[in-house]
Amino acid sequence: MYQYDELDQAFVDQRVAEFRDQTRRHLAGELSEEEFRPLRLRNGLYLQRHAPMLRIAIPYGLLSARQLRALAAITRRYDRGYGHFTTRQNLQLNWPRLAEVPDILAELAAVQMHAIQTSGNCVRNVTADHLAGIAPDEIADPRPYCEIIRQWATQHPEFTYLPRKFKIAVTGAATDRAASEVHDIGLQLRRGADGALGFTVRVGGGLGRAPVIGQVIREFLPETELLAYLEAILRIYNRHGRRDNLNKARIKVLVKSLGAARFRELVEEEWTIGRAHAAQLTTADVARVQRHFRPPPYRALAELALPPEASPRFRAWHRYNTLAHRVPGYRAVFVCLKAHGGVPGDMTAEQMEALAGLAERHSFGLIRATHTQNLLLADVPQADLPALWAALERLGLATPNIGTLTDLIACPGLDFCSLANAGTLEVARQIHERFDDFDYLYDVGEIELKMSGCMNACGHHHVGHIGILGVDKHGEEWYQITLGGSARGITALGEVIGPSVPKRAVAATLERILETYRALRDPDEPFIETVRRVGVQPFRERAYALHPAAA
Amino acid sequence: MRYILRQREIQPDHWHYLGESHAPASALIVPGAELRREPERWWAWSGRLGASLTPIEQIEDLQPHLRRLDLVAVSFPVFGDGRGFTQLRLLRQRYAFAGELRATGAGVTPELAHLLVRCGVDAFEVARPEQGRALARACERYDVAYQPGAPAVPVRLQRFRLPA
User: Fold this and answer.
1) Which of A231, A244, A282, B116 is the most exposed place for a label (fewest CB within 10 A)?
2) What is the pLDDT of residues A5-27, one digit of tens each?
3) Residue B111 and residue B125: Cα distance in Å, rounded?
4) The CATH number of A312-395 is which of 3.30.70.2470, 3.90.480.20, 3.40.50.720, 3.30.420.140?
């Protein structure tokens, strides 16, 4: 993985010193809350419902065992002994104390981590495919480019005070696992006619209040033009993006109002003129970063069959929580943070420390955060699987539900977030409780359930096969359900099936939706395919059949 | 009285804005819109000339007049409106403006000092000398940068370069 050099380390150290000074001035009354707010946000610090919330960047989701141990130690010393992994591959602490945040940032800097630009109207953590480097369908590893963009965007002198937040995702595989089409900029690695690498560039995707799928403005951008082209896009946005209305300030609104064709013209013109004064990316720069992402020293191993004595529970875990690997004899293993009854994405310090050891023993000391609020050990020898499974089972990290309904993703909702309209965690518990029968879960098969507590869509409900959106109705928490969304492979936005339902009725409504699917599906047809084939109408008719209260 | 932080020194500002009561002045800053309204008058004027820019102005409109100008004042009326950063970079880099680029307005705080300098600012306009001292200290916070900056401000370590 990437290792800081002298510049990287000096930068994070100087940033910690700056934030320490800003925090001191704020606590001494020299900086008002209004003045302090944009400064703390750019260092990942929100003020939430109960306490500050610190969002720590995990660039493109990659962590070393040493870093995971440091995170565990931080949650013990400065928080309540746990952290929350998010859909953008970050980690959130829910209970830090403001005065101690500079110390937390200093401890992060000591292990080459930071919380820079995890919030605020600037370029956020750059995300990537969680299977980068191991996916069989990969064209090239996206992580070196993510790291290059991270560096370029860090405290960019021109683009750190944009109209609104700005999210970039890079995918290097044929199947998009980074939701690149719903990012402000989505980059897809491609090989050009001559075999050289480059990117298809999409702009203006996003979820939130007005979900929209990004539009291609360039089919092929040569790799060395990456930074010059990003500068052109950001410059057009910085100059022309709306600043009068927070809800219309994202780049998607600018792209829509100009039209993608006109936006593209502006960008291409700016790029042509501007590249003489834009940061240059040389092939040597790319090679220097790529050296940090070389494949680990795999051994020559044979593919192993499951041992005949394997227990049904191990078999289920093997089937649902592990993935094929492009190197023979290895598999990728999900570390499930969706134990039934738990909070999706939460992990205790004990679990982090134990997992760090397991990663060192079984997976070259590296851990990945996924977009689905789980972790992944990417390179596990198949012979190690029984021992790893037993250890994860003891830690409560082996619930065999990856890819199923209860592997749902959810934002923290009203329990923590000051923006939320409705709770998500209790609904998640309700769903875990009602669908605790694994035979049933496996029968309904692969379903992506995504839940957000408000229109800001941190839980990506628009692109869930089933999406749940919390709304506030006269002070009560109600939930709107959408079907047919998708961000993996095909990007599509879900369709609302009807009026929202009260909290107590969410799981029961889901059950009627699943029963409808079971009645209508063709043999071996996954849920999302049935929805695409029959449309939402049959689900709409039956979901409310027994539920007049939801008018 | 207004002060200017320039090359780490804080001095009284000898420039005047059009409409300020200190006239007659030998160094005058006029709004960019005014310069475009009466270009002949201002090109013919005998003193040193500067232009002020608000965030909504397009830098291309000022470009024909840059040869006449000794100074451009880029304003940051509120903290967080980053359009001025683009104006600065275009002035310094695309149009190779070699005169004084000063940052003005309530949005110019010590937190932005190093960004402004990287974009080409070489003077900060302040109401009180202590504000100038805070800005001067803030300019020293970072001695490394990832991006290329205005040519006059080298850092100890820098990652990306401009094309040769």
Assistant:
1) A244
2) 999 999 999 999 999 999 999 99
3) 15
4) 3.90.480.20
